[in-house]
């Protein structure tokens, strides 16, 4: 069965960076993209970017393109999302999700990132 | 921009729910999806390509629409259906994946 398992909660200070991982299993990693979506408390879902599991091509939302980097480790079938220059507004749950022409069909459990001085 | 309405919908189990999603630009039918999210959980894909149910989704959930107006219908509400529902639009060049602001479906 397809599973996406994310790393644990993080507490960071403003200006720091955070790196979250997403371990994929149960399918052929190269066949799908992995997307990152975040959700601030009480807010809507917000797409951040994606990476191809096959060739590593990335695409980022314009809102985050200067602060986010998504990478993959094909041997570990793991995707990482690095968000820099953190501010309080980045406090949110961050999700990875498997993408395809059917939408985001499998999601990780979410990683809570808290940014506070 | 995706606009969902109503913001909150109060209904009773057994009733029919109709949720709306309006886009600011014409959407290619392949690129409209609906998700369900319960408190403390990740979203779950319900509908893709406007009207196709995702794997394991009960047939009381259906999607319809075209152009700029789309609808998610739940024919007979079950207690587990009370949640927040989001529509999502994909850009044709796969560079944008916009979500609506959500409709909260609550028990009346």
List keywords for this structure.
heterodimer; A: 117 residues; mainly beta; seven-stranded mixed beta sheet; four-stranded antiparallel beta sheet; 0% helix; 54% strand; globular; B: 108 residues; 11 strands
Structural class by SSE content of chain B: mainly beta
Q: What sequence of helices (H) and strands (E) makes up the elements of chain A?
A: EEEEEEEEEEE
Helix content of chain A: under 10%
User: How would you characterize the largest beta sheet of chain B?
Assistant: 7 strands, mixed
- Backbone CA Rg of chain A: 13 Å
Taken in chain order, the helices and strands of chain B follow as: EEEEEEEEEEE
Largest interface: A-B, 20 and 25 residues
Decide which structural class fits the backbone of chain A.
mainly beta
Mean pLDDT across the residues of chain B is: 92
Overview of this structure, please?
- The complex is a heterodimer of chains A (117) and B (108).
- Chain A has 117 residues and is mainly beta.
- Chain A is 0% helix and 54% strand.
- In chain A, strand 7 and strand 8 (78-83) form a beta hairpin.
- In chain B, 0% of the residues lie in helices and 51% in strands.
- In chain B, the strands form two sheets. In chain B, strands 2, 4, 5, 6, 9, 10 and 11 form a seven-stranded mixed sheet that branches. A four-stranded antiparallel sheet of chain B has the order 1-3-8-7, with no helix packed on it.
- The chains are: A mainly beta (117), B mainly beta (108).
- The interface between A and B is medium-sized, with 20 and 25 residues.
């Amino acid at each position: 069965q397809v599973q996406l398992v994310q790393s644990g909660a993080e507490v960071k200070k403003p200006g720091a960076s955070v790196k979250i991982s997403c371990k994929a299993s149960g399918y052929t990693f190269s066949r799908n993209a992995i997307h990152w979506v975040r959700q601030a408390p009480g807010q809507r879902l917000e797409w951040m970017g994606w990476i191809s599991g096959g060739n590593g091509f990335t695409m980022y939302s314009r809102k985050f393109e200067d602060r986010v980097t998504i990478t993959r480790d094909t041997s570990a079938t793991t995707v990482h999302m690095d968000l820099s220059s953190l501010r309080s507004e980045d406090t949110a749950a961050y999700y990875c999700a498997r993408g395809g022409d059917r939408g985001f069909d499998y999601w990780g459990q979410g990683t809570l990132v808290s940014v506070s001085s | 921009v995706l606009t969902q309405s109503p913001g909150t919908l109060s209904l009773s189990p057994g009733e029919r729910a109709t949720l709306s999603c309006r886009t600011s630009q014409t959407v290619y039918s392949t690129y409209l999806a609906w998700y369900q999210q319960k408190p403390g959980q990740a979203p779950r894909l319900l509908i893709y390509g406007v009207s196709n149910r995702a794997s394991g989704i009960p047939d009381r959930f259906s999607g319809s629409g075209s152009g700029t107006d789309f609808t998610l219908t739940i024919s007979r509400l079950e207690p587990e259906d009370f949640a927040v529902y989001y529509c999502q639009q994909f850009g044709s060049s796969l560079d944008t994946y916009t979500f609506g602001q959500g409709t909260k479906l609550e028990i009346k």
